[in-house]
């Protein structure tokens, strides 16, 4: 099954790739690696939640943020490489979670991204990752996710 | 126009590459990728500003910090690869901005770095990036920037 | 001297590779680069210290955390590539240090990792790195370290 069929089966419609919020590009290809910029949980140009985990944002909302950020990353990748079937391996996910004092559930939040990637790409979706609690994130986003994938 | 001519035209003189502040090296080459260590806004061995954005450091000062950190990265790259014309593509910029509670202008600050890279390297300077608010940075620096470039 | 002989001489016994704390894998190989997930200072499944530098955790304890995280990364690498002698170059270390307000000794803490890598791998162990102060880390860990190595 192709990735586009898989997404359809999962009832996932990729959004239009979000425009960068500043002076950079959404993705760069170097050899067979594609580096995707830090993606925020933007939907139709607006953050779906704002604030920090452990304060304004619940874990469930954080998980949804991670999923939306990943869909934005996939939209960017589709634009960058033309076809998501070219992804040979998801290599690394970097997840920054805006964290209030004492919040240590970064892994659970980032699982929203990781589980979705594995559901879509199966073996090819299993990635290395780092989950880190940020003091603040752009636009007061709760989650920011960057990605490296290997293409064929 | 070569990069050194471009820098001259922009009245930019690269500093001597800063010595690492600890037990590591300024850059490592792996294949055609060069990984530059996190650079601080050091000039003549001293931080040009100290503290956090949203408190001691204004956005304008943060932008200047980002520019100075990038010039240090370019000085390191020149030392590492001999000639900045070998840069085929700037791949990724990682920008950490020391952020006080409620400061969410990380993208504007990091634009100091991104715009400078694009001004110098034009199309080759357009990079992926992640902008993240750090709780604290080494030496109380307001900004730390790391970089991956692809060389030919 | 092989790396295993070197480790024996240094009285270092690698631990069993820690299981990921969530939905990802400990390492991914892409071409000749191996990306190791963010490693915590876990020993026998428990953090050796908890809390932040500048508050519950001293610099000496932070250095020990960095060393333990690196040993976990090496255990993961051994499992991933079979033999640590295949490491041609340690490319990049990313070190996140959970930092209380006003703690700026991230480089000293991360040196626990960097010096150990250079002691074990000598020239091949000299890496680029970024040291960043995190607001919070998973499980209330004081230190998280991720790594990229080049293999032959």
- The percent range for strand residues of chain A is 25-35%
Structural class of chain A: alpha+beta
Indicate the CATH class of chain A: Alpha Beta
Poorly predicted runs of chain A:
none
Multimerization status? homotrimer
Describe what is shown at a glance.
Three copies of one chain form a homotrimer. Chain A is of the alpha+beta class.
What does this structure look like?
The structure is a homotrimer of 152-residue chains. Chain A has 152 residues and is of the alpha+beta class. Chain A has a single domain, classed as 60s Ribosomal Protein L30, Chain: A, CATH 3.30.1330.40. Helices cover 30% and strands 28% of the residues of chain A. In chain A, the strands form two sheets. Chain A has a five-stranded mixed sheet with strand order 1-2-7-5-6, with helices on one face. Chain A has a two-stranded antiparallel ribbon with strand order 3-4. Chain A is globular. The model of chain A has no long low-confidence stretch (mean pLDDT 96). Chains in contact: A-B, A-C, B-C. At the A-C interface, strand 5, helix 3 and strand 6 of A face strand 1, strand 2 and strand 5 of C.
């Amino acid at each position: 099954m192709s990735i586009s069929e898989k997404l359809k089966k999962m009832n996932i419609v990729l959004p239009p790739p979000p425009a960068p919020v500043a002076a950079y590009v959404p993705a760069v290809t170097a050899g067979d690696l594609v580096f995707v910029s830090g993606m925020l949980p933007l939907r139709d140009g607006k953050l779906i939640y704002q604030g920090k985990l452990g304060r304004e944002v619940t874990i469930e909302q954080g998980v949804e943020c991670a999923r939306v950020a990943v869909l934005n990353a996939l939209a960017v990748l589709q634009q960058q490489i033309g076809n998501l079937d070219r992804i040979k391996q998801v290599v690394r996910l970097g997840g920054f979670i805006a964290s209030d004092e004492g919040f240590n559930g970064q892994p659970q939040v980032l699982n929203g991204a990781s589980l979705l990637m594995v559901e879509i790409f199966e073996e090819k979706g299993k990635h290395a990752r780092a989950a880190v609690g940020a003091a603040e994130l752009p636009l007061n986003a709760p989650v920011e996710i960057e990605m490296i994938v290997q293409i064929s």
